[in-house]
Amino acid sequence: MNRWKRLVKEIRADVKAARERDPAAQGVSTFEIVSSWAGVQALLAHRAAHALYETGVPLLPRMIAYLTRAVTGIEIHPAAEIGNEFFIDHGSGVVIGETAVIGNCVTLYQGVTLGGTGFQRGKRHPTLGNNVTAGSGAKLLGPIAVGDGAKIGANTVVVEDVPPGATVVGNPGHPVRLEGRKVEGPDADWIHLPDPIADAIKALSERIAEVEARLAQLDGGNGPSAEVAKIEPRTGRSSAGG
After folding, report:
1. Which CATH class, in words, describes the domain spanning 2-176?
2. Which are the catalytic amino acids?
């Protein structure tokens, strides 16, 4: 009985999370969210399947997961452990593996995979801390740990542990710092994430121009005629609404 009371409490928290984090859910009734939000539907079905799985019921939890995937496009293994106030935005293509563990107040966007990297047994899927956000298409692979408050950029491939509060981008993913400001809330500013590769190219370009100018002075010439293209950081309105 206590398990099912906990299930009802988790469902209420999940609907609340959808209303708070999805701008399209503002002013929408609870019934409408439950009946038409695929991410919420998949999560509610998983809550029931996981409760049955924990009690040792055979076959039925996997059947619920299979039917949920067919209807919503979201695949969550019944054994996956998911905390409170979890939200899947849009959700199509999201895959959460058997040994995945997800903390509280986590947000996943469409196409995110919490998968394994081989055929080993035991713990083989990621563990996400609290308040983690993973952007569209992000792939978190293997028994890695993602610290509290971390943000994973869209299409990032993460195969190593992520420290708390870090923002990770690239393939393979690597932590970067946001210059001069902190991204707030569950939605990362995907447009203005730093680009370490572009920064490295910019530094090399400036260094080459400096070396060419010094060589030109030594040779008595006027230096290269071609101008070095400047790589400017992306500016403009934030996709996070800021």
Report:
1. mainly beta
2. 90
